[in-house]
Amino acid sequence: MLHRMSRAFTKESDQIEPLPEIPLSEHPNRTTPQGLQRQQQRLAQLRMHSSSDASLQDQLAAQNLAREMRWLEARIAAAVVIDPATQPRGRVAFGATVEVIDENDVRASYRIVGEDEADAEHGSVSWFSPLAKAVLGAQVGDEVVWRRPAGDLRLEIAAIRYE
């Protein structure tokens, strides 16, 4: 009589399945010089860890590291650097910090940046976000409509700065 051992007690292969690649955006990788510099610094950091850190024995950690490096390499290679200093003054364009006043007299400032730089908590929004689409091309004094899922909001352009 042949007895089968439960798979729970057998050693599975030590190999783990490859992780899926981090998806690349369908949008052009517009970025500020600072955004590109941050990506380059992060890639250099990852390369240093991958080549000098002997403690990276965990296969999953090594795969994650390699995957992030491939993603950063692709994003850096596709970068279209737009220096805010070269943007035309007087209109909201990529790299601008725009101050708006909404219909409730609430003031807010947003900086139009690349997708990988966007950080809404710190007032940076992607150039293809609904807010950026509403203000791009506007001048001080213009009224625009920000189309939001929560409902449209009228904004007046109060100031435009390029830093």
TrEMBL record:
<protein>
    <submittedName>
        <fullName>Transcription elongation GreA/GreB family factor</fullName>
    </submittedName>
</protein>
<dbReference type="GO" id="GO:0032784">
    <property type="term" value="P:regulation of DNA-templated transcription elongation"/>
</dbReference>
<dbReference type="InterPro" id="IPR001437">
    <property type="entry name" value="Tscrpt_elong_fac_GreA/B_C"/>
</dbReference>
<dbReference type="GO" id="GO:0006354">
    <property type="term" value="P:DNA-templated transcription elongation"/>
</dbReference>
<dbReference type="InterPro" id="IPR036953">
    <property type="entry name" value="GreA/GreB_C_sf"/>
</dbReference>
<dbReference type="InterPro" id="IPR018151">
    <property type="entry name" value="TF_GreA/GreB_CS"/>
</dbReference>
<dbReference type="InterPro" id="IPR023459">
    <property type="entry name" value="Tscrpt_elong_fac_GreA/B_fam"/>
</dbReference>
<feature type="region of interest" description="Disordered">
    <location>
        <begin position="1"/>
        <end position="40"/>
    </location>
</feature>
<dbReference type="Pfam" id="PF01272">
    <property type="entry name" value="GreA_GreB"/>
</dbReference>
<feature type="domain" description="Transcription elongation factor GreA/GreB C-terminal">
    <location>
        <begin position="88"/>
        <end position="162"/>
    </location>
</feature>
<dbReference type="GO" id="GO:0003677">
    <property type="term" value="F:DNA binding"/>
</dbReference>
<dbReference type="GO" id="GO:0070063">
    <property type="term" value="F:RNA polymerase binding"/>
</dbReference>
